[in-house]
Amino acid sequence: MIQTERDYVKSLQFIIENYIPEISRPDVPQTLRGKRSIIFGNIEKIYEFHSLSFLSELEKCQTHPYAVCHAFLKH
Prior knowledge:
mainly alpha; about 0% strand
């Protein structure tokens, strides 16, 4: 579960760093212009939560797997 969360955080970061800048380019197709929030929503906030809060909570549970439920209930 911890590795899956790490992979998820890396995937979100990749999208933020690579795809979001692309939609801001001047040569983006007309149908995509101004659609950043529709396509990507609040991905930065999701990334922030998972990278700064939830992942660290899960990592704390590495030696106590039954404590994972508390991380879910907390968030």
